[in-house]
Amino acid sequence: MNICCFCSAADLDDRYLTPARQFAELIGKGGHALVWGGSDTGLMKVLADGVQEAGGKLIGVSVEFLVHKAREGVDEMIVAKDLAERKAQMLARADAIVIMVGGMGTLDEATEMLELRKHGLHTKPVVLLNTAGFYDGLRAQFARMESEGFLPLPLADLVFFAEDGAGALAYLEERAAAQS
Q1: Are 118 and 153 in contact, with CB atoms under 8 Å apart?
Q2: What is the pTM of this model?
């Protein structure tokens, strides 16, 4: 399975890095490929290192203005002209999407993937990896949107909240098995 992970390229503390590395190792050991933003910095680097060291494949999608931060030695590297094209390229190469901790860019990526799913423009499973409760506030906001009628389908049909990488991968593997 090609697992697209949207996450931060920032250097973060161990409460985020350690679970990301553990998740990356599960992806690699499971024989899966990582589709990610292609950066060799911060959390993106930790994720790519873990997948590669565990035997997984790396598919990077960088963007022209960040190509100087792109990781060397990957299985495939695509360079998009802008962030919109980057998201589209990542989605096109993915079988599943995992939103990890991140800033404004990651939040933008998450909401776009969910909006596209809401409208049926993709049917790939989307997981919000809620490391250290990072997405508790967003989960509450989504629940409010659902309860007040802003979502045309149940929240559970749009996104799965996982508390750890093992839960995220188990959900994705279950979904993949059910579709085959």
Answers
A1: yes
A2: 0.95
